[in-house]
What we know:
Layout: E1 10-14, H1 19-30, E2 34-39, E3 50-53, H2 59-65, E4 71-74, H3 84-94, E5 98-100
Parallel strand pairs: 1-2, 1-4, 2-3, 4-5
Helix pairs in contact: 2-3
Amino acid sequence: MSASQLTYTKFAVAGGTGGLGAFIVKELVAQGASVVVLSRSAEAASAGATVVAVDYADPSGLVKALAGIEVVISTLSHGGFALQHPLADAAKAAGVKLFVPG
């Protein structure tokens, strides 16, 4: 399936540098999607994706990071579960069409 066959083409993956998240990012990139990895560290790396450092406690920064994104996929786990609420709120404020919680 190519990007022209995908329903959505612009994704953000929270936790996209760890286990499951990295796999999702890799597959989305392979499908031709535009992918932004939301990370607490600007030093994180993700082949074929853009890494954006975010502070989950900064709602306006999250909204800015999600500008133009169609789908947010959260792969945050354990202590990160509490961060999904501000992330979902920011996704809504940014006009994201679909939020997939982890």
